[in-house]
Specification:
This protein is mainly alpha-helical. It contains ten helices and six strands. The longest helix is centred in the last third of the chain and has 30 residues. The protein is elongated, with a radius of gyration of 23 Å. The N and C termini lie far apart (53 Å).
């Protein structure tokens, strides 16, 4: 019953998003606009096709963010690292084995799933599963954003920012001048509604894009940034120290190109002692 309810909510949310994204451009096809001239009257096919491709890309990335598994932690009998494809696994195996012998409090235990969580993982009460490098549960996707789908979420935000800006310019240039406010309002009512959607949606999307760009550059997640003082492996470190920060370029490269999950315990072990020493000095 719960699963059916979740699927139903997901369908409603994603259908609403698709209708919203398609609704504004479709409305511009029925009034005098640059988009109508390009796609309907075919005066500037390159312009029209370029816009249509960008719109399609935005929807494709949205559904990739929705349906690519965010990084569910599979319950293992012997070790949390079994049967998982890891980034740079050949060079990290020996270090990971040494850490497993003396891992202390590196792993958190999930009472819901009854298993140890890999570092940076968190149980999502909405998804009923533990998520690797958990960022947040996104109601607009109706799924979690984690290690495997975070890049698609960020790319969706980036492309949608461009799409909103382009649509805003088309809508703004389509307003008609009238002698009276009443006539102006009647002739531009559709454009006013489009602008309302674009401004409200644009503020949210641009804000999220900037925030998640910052997280990508810093090698952080929303959960770690908001709940740092409650996370066992971070609360004892200096507040400004991030053990998962491997430098701007490397953070961005891993974020956008990595397919395999990463042993964050190894990265943490290499840098965590530095953060503890800094805190003790202060």
């Amino acid at each position: 019953m719960t699963c059916r309810c979740a699927c139903g909510v997901g369908c409603v949310v994603r259908t609403f998003h698709s209708a919203l994204v398609l609704g504004v451009p479709i409305s511009l096809l029925f009034i005098d606009s640059a988009l109508k001239e390009a796609l309907v009257e075919f005066k500037d096919p390159v312009y029209g096709i370029g816009y249509a491709l960008l719109l399609t890309l935005s929807l494709v990335l949205y559904y990739l963010a929705c349906f690519v598994e965010p990084g569910y932690v599979q319950k293992q009998k012997k070790s949390v690292n079994n049967n998982i494809a890891y980034e740079d696994s050949s060079s990290e195996d020996e270090e990971a084995q040494m850490m497993n012998k003396d891992k202390k409090s590196l792993y958190r235990y999930c009472d819901f799933c009854e298993m140890e969580q890999p570092m940076r993982s968190k149980h999502c009460e909405d998804c009923k599963k533990c998520i690797r490098r958990y960022d947040h549960h996104c109601p607009w996707l109706e799924t979690c954003v984690g290690e495997r789908n975070h890049k698609y979420f960020w790319l969706f935000l980036a492309v949608t920012c461009i799409l909103i800006f382009w649509t805003f310019l088309i809508t703004w240039s389509s307003f008609k001048f009238q002698l009276t406010w009443k006539e102006w309002f009647k002739s531009n009512i559709v454009l006013l509604l489009d602008m309302l959607v674009l401004v409200l949606g644009g503020m949210s999307v641009i804000g999220l894009f900037c925030f998640h760009s910052y997280l990508m550059i810093k090698g952080l997640t929303t959960w770690e940034m908001v709940s740092r003082e409650r996370i066992t492996y971070l609360k004892y470190l200096d507040y400004d120290f991030n053990p998962f920060d491997e430098g701007c370029i490397k953070n961005i490269y891993y974020f956008l190109t990595s397919i395999k999950v990463k042993r964050w315990e190894v990265t943490y072990e290499k840098k965590a002692n530095i953060g503890k020493r800094k805190k003790n000095i202060v």
